[in-house]
Structure formats: structure tokens, C-alpha cells
Amino acid sequence: MYFNKNLSSERNNRINKLIRRIQMAEAKNEIINKTTLKNEGLGSPATLGRELALIGDEDERIITFDKHKLTFRMHPEWKNANHIKIDSMNYISLGIFKSLLNQYQNTPLYTNVLTKVEELAGMPLNDFSRITVPPKPEYNKDDQNKFSKIFDYMNQNFKIQFYYKGRWHGEERKNRVVHPYQLLLESGTCYLYGFDEEKNEERLFVIRRMEEIRLKNGEKFNLPPDYEFSVKHGFSKFGAYTFREPVQYKIEFYGNTQIWIKENKWADDQIIEESEKKLL
After folding, report:
1. What angle do CA 210, 213, 214 make, to 5 degrees?
2. Which parts of the chain register pLDDT below 70?
3. What angle in degrees, to the nearest 10, is found between the helix axes of 9-27 and 110-121?
4. Is the pTM of this model over 0.85?
5. What pLDDT does residue 135 have?
6. Which of 70, 98, 148, 174 is at 20 to 30 A from 107, Cα to Cα?
7. Do residues 143 and 190 touch, judged by C-beta distance below 8 A?
């Protein structure tokens, strides 16, 4: 957003943070003054005063100071300042940002994701609210405590145990001991990906079906170097599945579905064969 080649990268970054903070306050109709800015960790009072003077009314006119209310806001013509670079973000970037927010809605990570998205976009969320993506199923709010507990144990490489009932009809509720590798978020469902000691292989578990999550006697495990789910099981774009070896399928599509299938990529090695009535 702000870039002055005559300044150090540290100063450019600090000024960008300062501008974003004032933008956020203005978007949320919050009051921001010298006192609140001093608490933002943007440097010493002298450093902050220097940056405010540089982008203020007497210089670059990016922010303006209300002498009556003693508050800051964005200058009405701030986008015309010499060192403001307005990047016309492409639709892919905006779509990714909005998808990220949808993906993490109702999870403990949402606030952190929102902050990072606004930082990457260089603008408050309100500024690109006219861009949207189709809504996806929301994550179950009851899963949040489970998610947080697993996340904490997982980051410390603790083995966990829990009672779990699979999706197949008649399957009994069993105690499982698992080495938690990763948490997966997909279309409203939270999964745990890890090594199941009983099955002696990697498995996916739906967090919603996990009960009485606890440590396995404080035991730890060694995280393997190839734990990444997408590397070992990410060959298909149809969803999250685990399998011992990649499997290739031939799928036939008819009618209007053919158009939609052709316009998207569903697997890295996909081959599309088209005939008069069907797509293969």
C-alpha cells in the first residue's frame, strides 16, 4: 500500500501498520488518538511522532488530525498521495481471502485469520465486502472446545485417546489411541488426521464423533517427516480421503454436468475424454 524507496523496509512496514490501524478504526467507527496509537507497539513516542508527521496533513496527507476531537482519520484524498500504491487485487486473491474467512468461521482460529487477511489485503474487511463466495456449511460450534484441546495436545506431540464411533451402521464405540498429525477443515467438517495404534495405519477421524478426548498417560510420539496430509493423500480435489495407494477411476458425466466438470481441475493427473453424449 505505502512504499517510499527512500525509506528503510522497517519504516515502510511501520507506516503501513499505522495506516491500517487508522483504517480499521475508521471502518469500525472507533476513536483513535495519540494515546491509543502509543499502545499499538509501533515504536517509541518519538518514532511514532515522526511517522505521523510524515504521513500527516503537513506532508503526504494520508491521514488527517482533527484538532477539536484530537483524533485521527484517513484524509479524504489519501489514495492520491505520492507513495500510496493502490493494487487492483485480482478476483482470485479476493476469492481466496473470503474463502479463508468462510473456512475458519466458528473455529478458534477465526480472529487470527481475520487479522492476517486484513493485513495481506492491505485494507479493512469492509472494503472488500462486495466480493463474496458461495456460502459453505458452517462448522459445528460444539466442536470448538474439542478442536482447541486437540490443537494444544498436537502441538506438543502428545498421544491422545478418545472414544469413537465410525460412520458405518452398527459400528461400536471404541477407545482409540492416536498420534495426532494434523487438523483438517473441509466444507463444515473438522477432521483429525493421525496414526491409529490399533489399526497400525494413518486414519481420518471426524472430530464431532470423538468423545472424552484425553492424554495417553502423558506419552509422546515422534512426528514423522512425511506427516503432511496433502502430500500423501491429496491427489484428488473431490474431498478429504485416506488410502494406502493412489487409485485411478474412470467417471462418466452426462448432461449439463459436463460443462462444470470441464471447467475445473479435479486431479493433477486427470484426462478428459469427450464424446457426443458423455464426458469421461
Report:
1. 160
2. 86-96, 98, 118-139, 167-171, 233-247, 260, 263-268, 276-280
3. 120
4. no
5. 62
6. 174
7. yes
CA distance linking residue 125 with residue 130, whole number of Å: 10
CA distance 70 to 83: 25
Question: Could you tell me which of 46, 54, 40 has the C-alpha nearest to residue 12?
Answer: 54
For residue 229, which of 247, 248, 243, 215 has the smallest C-alpha distance? Answer: 243
Q: Which of 19, 3, 173, 201 is nearest to 84 (CA)?
A: 3
